[in-house]
Amino acid sequence: MDSNDLTLADQGARARRASRVLATATSSLKDAALQRAARLIEERAGEILLANEKDVRDAGERGATRTALDRLRLDPSRVQSMAAGLRSVAALPDPVGEILDGWVRPNGLRVRRVRVPLGVVGVIYENRPNVTSDAAALCVKSGNAVMLRGSSSTINSNMQIASALREGVRQAGLPEDSVLLVTETSRESAVELMRMRGVIDCLIPRGGHDLVASVIENATVPYVIDGDGNCHVYVDASADLDRAVEIIVNAKMQRPSVCNAAESLLVHADVAADLLPRARARMAGVEMVGDARACAILDGIGRATEKDFATEFLDLKLAVAVVDDLDAAIDHIATYGTGHSEAIVTEDLEAARRFTQEVDAACVVVNASTRFVDGGELGLGAEIGISTQKLHARGPMGLRELTSVKFVLEGEGQIRT
Amino acid sequence: MDSNDLTLADQGARARRASRVLATATSSLKDAALQRAARLIEERAGEILLANEKDVRDAGERGATRTALDRLRLDPSRVQSMAAGLRSVAALPDPVGEILDGWVRPNGLRVRRVRVPLGVVGVIYENRPNVTSDAAALCVKSGNAVMLRGSSSTINSNMQIASALREGVRQAGLPEDSVLLVTETSRESAVELMRMRGVIDCLIPRGGHDLVASVIENATVPYVIDGDGNCHVYVDASADLDRAVEIIVNAKMQRPSVCNAAESLLVHADVAADLLPRARARMAGVEMVGDARACAILDGIGRATEKDFATEFLDLKLAVAVVDDLDAAIDHIATYGTGHSEAIVTEDLEAARRFTQEVDAACVVVNASTRFVDGGELGLGAEIGISTQKLHARGPMGLRELTSVKFVLEGEGQIRT
């Protein structure tokens, strides 16, 4: 029976059974599964591209935007990248079995904490078909079964990709239900997935506001939020302004559509008149809006609203505020920031120390671009998302963040008195 | 204005402001706050006991059970224990600022992961007034503001205790709103607390099924569940039966009302006829119920229902099943266990290895009593609960589990290309 015909509850039961096998599978077996899946993705590139053409055609007929179509569209090089991604995850060290720490109690009881898989991971995502293989690779490598719930617009591509992944896992001698594609793509079924407590050990929603809001409202399963990045660059009075301009330009313009791009620029009043015109001169094409003091320096820019400072533009737009001091910058970030990535440009040791300690965010950056906040750039290997919550994982999430921990106690008959 | 007259939203705003100060407070300051609070608890023992007398009298008039009254009642030695608890938490190492790891990227960017406080912790608990000071101590020490929401039956005791805690924190020069008692104790206000997203960074419900179910259904804030402990002891064919009997008796009888007590006994068929009568002989006062094979060995015990195997009795009752092998024991635990603490008694290396690897629980125990699954017994210092979830914290939670992590990136103008 094709797993695609099963109910969500049936799929959940299958995922749980598979997860018990996968939890104790050796790294060699899991790596072989990913290697075989990579080869099958390559061998079946034709079928995958054909299915993708249908998805793109259907989406086009429904009037999808150019951006949406671009995200959805595969080509031979993107299929090759999926295979390469599977192989690169196979090459990463296996986090499972790591002993975090261990000690002996006075009564001789030996205690250790061991890294273990979560069990079943659910991923709800939108219309990038490569997430199907990327997420599956990270989950399988970390010993988890995965329930993948992509969008309806990607369904034909995803079915082909998932089929290759399942076959690869099966060929390696692991349960093919380690990778399950949820083909029921209604909103109701997404909510059903969010409420499969006892089945899904961790849900990772990868999508926009509406999806995240729905998870927060509806989920009864544990989840990790990959939330907004309303990221700031603060230029301190002591900053090297050449360096500051380069960092601002990079943080805003290098790839404006991503969560670690900067959305607001805060400038110390002492250097605003010098810095702002120089920054503006380097940012052709960027719409700048500012507070009263920024507008007084930058002729002709629009006035920033309260909402502008609270918005993740994900576009060539930048909100600018002039602040009196470091405290005002930290307060502004505390008010409007989303706890993602916050940067300071400064030559002052005390300002750097205070900013890194007092700004409450997943990542604080001194004298570098916010764009480095990324699993690959930080050297974590592949990432399954960037957590903006404080529990479990914070910042870029790699294989380690797809694991839990287990206490193991060993004795020789110790009892408590 | 007394903090008790504020709305929950006002209290939340105060807690957030306090949390920003507390987040960067030195260990010396935080320890001084706990030391001063301890002294104030002692100095005000008279007022605390008087308030507690009123709570006990009121609860008695409402027909509270003897157990409930016992939990609620303070006496001079219990007040002294609260002060001692504050001092012992002050003596623990401060987890904040610990560098978990750090490395340098090829472009010279320096990366480190630093332990930071969560921010504001919410604790919803029932009628033990000592939780007020125990939870506050752990939160303040780990740099978190805390919103304490005890039950209405403990309100007079809690107000006195919280007042001493707030005064102690204030005397040490930290914001008194680091410790806030929520005096509105309706069910609606509990749900309101569960939905203060953006205010509460971590909610810890310490209570029974109804409270946990309400959190799972209603909470929009992140939470850690301290859930049921339907713990098993499995006696393998190879077990030292003398040792097995001692462990069973200890796990069931030493303190039956707690989550790490055993609720079910699984015995390998090869040793059941030998072990079960010996175990029963040592467990006078324990009601045993069994499956068909256990009943055939133990004359006169009741037949265990499906529900018995799924129940955390928290009482002198034990469900017994005879299993064919280790696989059957592991399957039984996977079916009925709650992922808390599971023990095996065995002399067989392979059985011990398989049990520790394949049983999915916060704690797996080889040849010792499940009663050791406790923060104090394992050497973690005080504990704020035992997590039965897999995200963030699993097993006994101490100071470390009341923290998050922050990436700090330091460069000299690095930009992404």
Structure at a glance:
2 copies of one chain form a homodimer. The first copy, chain A, is α/β, with parallel strands linked by helices. Chain A contains 15 helices and 16 strands.
Secondary structure elements and their pairing?
2 copies of one chain form a homodimer.
Chain A: H1 8-23, H2 27-43, H3 45-61, H4 66-72, H5 76-90, E1 99-104, E2 110-117, E3 120-125, H6 130-141, E4 145-149, H7 155-171, E5 179-181, H8 187-194, E6 202-206, H9 209-218, E7 231-235, H10 241-253, E8 262-268, H11 269-281, E9 287-290, H12 292-297, E10 302-303, H13 306-310, E11 317-323, H14 326-336, E12 341-345, H15 349-358, E13 363-368, E14 385-387, E15 395-397, E16 403-414
Parallel strand pairs in A: 3-4, 3-6, 4-5, 7-8, 7-12, 8-11, 9-10, 9-11, 12-13
Antiparallel strand pairs in A: 1-2, 2-16, 14-15
Helix pairs in contact in A: 2-5, 2-7, 3-7, 5-6, 10-11
